[in-house]
Amino acid sequence: MSKVPMTVRGHELLLEEVKRLKSIDRPEVIKAIAEARAHGDLKENAEYHAAKDQQGFIEARIKEIEGKLSHVQVIDVTTIDARGKIVFGSTVVLIDDETGTEITYRIVGDDEADIKNGLISYTSPIARALISKNEGDVIEFQAPGGEKSYEVIEVRYE
Description:
single chain; 158 residues; alpha/beta; Helix Hairpins; Chitinase A, domain 3; two-stranded parallel ribbon; 3 helices; 7 strands
């Protein structure tokens, strides 16, 4: 399997999540299962079944995160000499040519993308149009709502 790009922050968040799952959530659910077992008949013990379900979700999430971490390529944009070009991890300030609205996006990995927080996946149409552009360039791309056009106002590496 090929390496999947991820920002330093995205990598840190996954490491924190797997640490929390293993050190806090897993022991809590094991304790809940033990307590539910102590109540007797397991066939009709809703607390026991809920705790077992929760344990399954926790173990699946740990396995999923560890799988992602084994195939990740962490890219620290602050160490790259991009010479003003937009690259993976860049923060980009754009002006919508149609509305004049200013928008700020950061290009991140698929697992980190969160449009509400201005984090766009490097595989998205807008990110693909932005990669390798410079300040002052105009990009055009096909959005779900039709053709869009933006001017690149600023490129930051944070």
